[in-house]
Amino acid sequence: MVTVFIRWTWLRAVLHNGWWLVTSVYLVVDAGLSPAELVLIGSVQSAFALVFEVPAGVIADTISRKWSLVISQVLMGTSMLATGLFESFPALLATQVLWGISWTFASGSDVALITDELDRPSEINVVLARAARAQLAGAATGLVLLGLLAWATRRDLTIVIAGATMGALGLYVAFRFTEHNFVPTRTARWSASWNTFRRGVTLVRRSRAILLIFVATFLVNGASDAAGRLTQKQLLDLGLPSAPDPIVWFTALGVTALVVGAVVLRLVTQRINGAHAATDYALAALVGVLAMLLLAFARDPVLGAIAVVLLNGIVTPLTRVISTIWVNARTTADIRATTHSFLAQLEYLGEIVCGVTISAIARLTTLPLALTACAVLFAATAVLMRRSPGDRAVGDLH
Q: What radius of gyration, in Å, describes the C-alpha atoms of the chain?
């Protein structure tokens, strides 16, 4: 099951990241969306995902984690495919909302499924770290393959192909995934779902460590998501060459960031499983501050590209894997997907609150000032994690 899970993680990353590379350029170049519209899409998408996240997690904990993933794949493929069919802002907003909802059925379900099926608590952190590296490797592959396809054909056609393939990946989950160690609730499902939700809330309220990572996730994800949606616009404004097609430059940049991320995760795998997690999270946030200030005030696209590599190659993968392992180590099998859904809710809430704020700054002032606001969020995260009650108390991941 571990091999099947790692392979699926790689395949999904190939399609998702390659699709987003092409889509991010498509939204700016073909659809002509403004910086405010780009960030607003992320905020509205997150608002819908926020509403769906906990119900989706409870379904995974009471009915089936495997079939939650199948639903996710079908919805994801549909939304990705539809994105390539429209250029108007309202239509693209709708496709991105559906895309956000599709992830709610996967967030938490995937980690909970592999944790239960492996049934080896001492090994699960290593497996999750392997999955994170596979995700980065798949993302790099997807950037190259779909980036080349978009360059050789058309961006909208590539988006449609990626979406159709992502939907078909649901068949892989349906036929290859097992679910032997999960016992679904067969009677009084509404009551069981409510009890699952309540137990998850109780766990979070009583765990200072989980509350800490929730707040950090809110700040980091809000900054990262807003910055990620402004990156293409800023690099183009800085004079990124238009020949060959911009997709070629963004592909090269994305692959470089993912290679850096894979190397960083391999170097720190054992460290982030231990007592240094809070410190490493704070250091990653400080790198985020540097990246945002560099991107905001760069004078040429080279410096801007370095900033993007720092953000996507160090900050995003490191904070994401630490938060996942951190929460997974502090929950139990019966509420695992629900607790991870709470974590995802904080990600979405950060995208909404911080995204709306940064969108307003971009609209009322300038793009560099909006990126500076992202740097402030990263700085607040670094201070929060370094003022935690000591790494041994809050970062001791068993």
A: 20
Write the burial class of residue 396 (CB in 10 Å: 0-12 exposed, 13-18 middle, 19+ buried). Answer: middle
Q: Which residues contact 393 (CB under 8 A, 6 or more apart)?
A: 209
The CA distance from 254 to 258, in Å, is 6
Cβ-contact 251, 300 below 8 angstroms: no
Largest CA distance in the chain: 63
Q: What is the DSSP letter of 389?
A: S
State residue 355 phi and psi, 5-degree precision.
Answer: -65, -45
2-25 helix and 246-272 helix, angle to the nearest 10 degrees? 140
Select from 257, 233, 370 the least CA-distant residue to 310. Answer: 257
pTM for this prediction = 0.73
pLDDT by residue, tens only, the chain of 398 residues = 899 999 999 999 999 999 998 998 899 889 988 877 887 887 788 788 888 877 887 788 788 889 999 999 999 999 999 999 999 999 999 999 999 999 989 987 898 899 889 888 778 888 888 898 898 889 889 988 998 999 899 999 999 999 999 999 999 999 999 998 877 766 555 566 677 778 888 888 888 888 888 899 999 988 988 887 788 788 888 887 766 677 788 888 888 888 898 888 888 776 666 567 788 899 999 999 999 999 999 888 889 899 999 998 899 889 988 888 888 888 877 788 778 878 888 887 887 888 778 878 888 888 889 999 999 999 999 998 876 654 343 334 33
Helix runs in the chain, H state only: 2-25, 35-62, 65-83, 89-104, 109-118, 124-152, 155-176, 189-206, 208-237, 246-272, 277-297, 301-310, 316-328, 336-364, 367-386, 391-394
Tokens of 38: 């780009």
Tokens of 220: 């980091």
